[in-house]
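Worked Example 4.2. Consider the chain below.
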Amino acid sequence: MSLVAVEWGPLVEADGSVSRTTHRWAVRDGAATSVIRVLSDWVLDPLTMRLLCAAVALWLLWRRAAWWTALWLVLTVGVAVVVQQAVKAAVGRPRPAWPDPVDSARFAAFPSGHAMTATVVCGLLLWLLHRGGVRRSLWRTAVALALLAVIGVGVTRVWLGVHWPSDVLGGWLFGALVVAVAVVVHEWPRGRTGARAGVGSRA
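Applying the procedure from the previous section yields the following structure tokens:
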């Protein structure tokens, strides 16, 4: 974020080089760009990801009566939105501007909301699966799908020319930070309970 804010030369140059190349490809290959727009704007967009989290939260309430985990999941996604918009406003980075754009987007560029939301949602759901002790085959499939979604949505945003590569990298990093903090918060009540139990047993 600091390098983006001060417009560090090597970063700006790398962003521009990659973005100009991918934009040429996007303009040249209209069929691929159309498919990528559907993936980016409908399949892997933030709204779809948030609806997925909402569905999982409802399932946790209905099948497991896991009120704390369901609330934690929804609140974490909400906090991620607030963090994302706050950073966008603070940095105020302009999006790439092209004479022949293939897509458009609102708000500031850094960090990528698509990349950050996908990272948060996939990270949270993977942690819940791991915590639930799912079968190894299901776990491997989930990891593969999560990586495909997170990396894929980042690539689509650069391909469509609405983000610089460092915007996507920033989205991934901020998303990972939100997930890490959320996991600590989720486990904190359990840790306090275990600590009290340990003190009681020693007494």
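The first helix runs from residue 2 to 5. The CA atoms of residues 69 and 116 lie 21 Å apart. Compare this with Example 4.1 before moving on.
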